């Protein structure tokens, strides 16, 4: 999947560990799906020997750039130095605005989002049980212009358990 270099692309991992049926999990996530309108979704039962219980979901959500701002540090009319724009702010600002709103919507603390050194991506990882989120959100990965799990735009198949991401 290709994205604009200015899009903020987020992967949201959700786990409802206390639901008993897939229908119950889908009903719980439906309001979030309707609001966020992810470009892709994946739902599955957690493996019996896995780290999680219940049902899992993975959403790929794309936030378009703010009006007038670009990731290249300029606008159509010309930008300012140091990665900022006259209208769009810095790359970090353009990343934090939609990620902060998404985190609040998920019931997570936006201040826990850790931005990478370039200011183009980052992660919000809930270390303890995701009880603070009504949707079971426990991981938000964000990257400007690419899927955080596939930054080169390639399809990937991950057979690992993901413990290294915790």
Give a short synopsis of this structure.
The protein is of the alpha+beta class and 166 residues long. It is built from two helices and six strands.
What does this structure look like?
The chain is globular. It starts with 7 loop residues before the first strand and ends in a 22-residue tail after the last strand. The protein has 2 helices and 6 strands; from the N terminus they run βαββαβββ. The protein is of the alpha+beta class and 166 residues long.
Number of strands: 6
Read across the widest sheet, the strand sequence of neighbours is 2-3-1-6-5-4
Structural class: alpha+beta
Terminal CA distance: 26 Å
What characterizes the major β-sheet?
6 strands, antiparallel
Which overall shape is indicated by the principal axes computed on the Cα atoms?
Answer: globular
Helix segment tally: 2
